[in-house]
Specification:
alpha+beta, 31% helix, elongated
């Protein structure tokens, strides 16, 4: 006969009951529960067990998890969803680099770059698009393209590359005196003046008769 010290604890009984209840739920009820969750909620649910993680691989969750591939054509002038990682990424534009610090999830208190998250390899919008025109408020859009669908990684890499480029000569001549540098040393970051604090993305709207998406940044803070 087992001694009292060897008997399962109330906590162990409760855990066993939870597992049995979870495993006894019919699949369709699981799908109804998961249908109510957003991007962050689905990722948290996937950590519960292998069974739930397998459910989340179902194509019905592709839109919420930014797995939807680009269609041949998007409804013109419609809005598309922007990936949460892009909204959680703080881009500090300095010299020739874009420092992409990000914090994803309410339980994430440490600092990471956006490229440290697996989500960086998910599509940048849902549905995805093959051509994205980026408007960061300097009077000139620049394109990001991928016929298989623009992903977060591609967009952020292109964003960093863009800020490392030089503006047109006529723009550089207009402000180079303000920084006491030669026109050939003026950067796009300088064009923003003091208002270069990143505040996220305002919208993603389908243009060019459904062939491209314009991603527009919010105005900058100083």
């Amino acid at each position: 006969m087992a001694s009292p010290s060897q008997s399962p604890s109330p906590q162990a009984h409760a855990a066993d009951d939870t597992v049995r209840a979870r495993d006894s739920l019919p699949d369709e009820l699981w799908f109804q529960i998961l249908d109510e969750l957003d991007y962050e909620g689905l990722h948290k649910a996937a950590r519960l067990c292998k069974k739930v993680k397998a459910f989340i691989q179902d194509e019905r969750f592709d839109d919420v998890l930014f797995r939807t591939k680009p269609p041949k054509k998007l409804p013109a002038n419609s809005r598309v969803e922007i990936h949460p990682l892009l909204q959680a990424t703080y881009c500090v534009f300095t010299k020739k680099d874009a420092l992409t610090w990000a914090s994803m999830g309410s339980d994430d208190s440490s600092e990471h770059t956006a490229f440290e998250y697996p989500a960086v390899d998910e599509f940048a919008t849902v549905p995805a698009c093959g051509i994205m025109n980026i408007d960061v408020g300097i009077g000139k859009k620049f394109p990001v393209t991928d016929r298989n669908g623009v992903k977060v990684r591609r967009l952020l890499q292109r964003l960093g590359h863009f800020w490392g480029q030089k503006p047109p000569a006529w723009m550089a001549y207009r402000i180079h005196g303000e920084y006491d540098v030669g026109p050939d040393e003026v950067t796009w970051q300088m064009m923003l003046g003091d208002r270069c604090g990143w505040t996220g993305w305002a919208s993603a709207v389908v243009e060019n008769e459904g062939k491209a998406v314009t991603l527009t940044a919010d105005g900058y803070d100083s």
